[in-house]
Amino acid sequence: MSNTTWVCLTCKKSHRKDSSLWSFVCPTCKAKCEGVHWKIRIPSPKRKRQWKQFWEKYLNEKAQLDEFYRDESVQRIELEILNLVYSREEPRKGVESFPLRDTRKPG
Description:
This protein is about 20% helix and about 20% strand. By secondary structure, the protein is an alpha+beta fold. The strands form 2 sheets. Strands 2-1-3 form a 3-stranded antiparallel beta sheet, with no helix packed on it. A two-stranded antiparallel ribbon has the order 4-5. The two termini are about 25 Å apart. A hairpin with a 6-residue loop joins strand 1 and strand 2 (about 15-20). It is built from 1 helix and 5 strands. The protein has 2 domains: about 1-40; about 45-95, no CATH class. The longest helix is centred in the middle third of the chain and has 23 residues, at about 50-70. The radius of gyration is 16 Å and the shape is globular.
């Protein structure tokens, strides 16, 4: 099983834990951490401007993804940081299509 990076936005500490976890609480400050895919480069918290810009954009993309799953009228979203494009459009002939998979916690 691979690991996920869990980052506490309150105390700015990173933790590597098993990717099967749905959530993780920071052992330092007890705040809820954000899970980030292992392939995404997270800027150092010492670089305050880059850190702030990254998290604003990342959390915005997560919100767009949640809205895409919640609202059927949203037809397409492009997520730059996550390097993903989701679309409800009909696949073109000869183009392989994969069904959307909801990876959010059930319930």
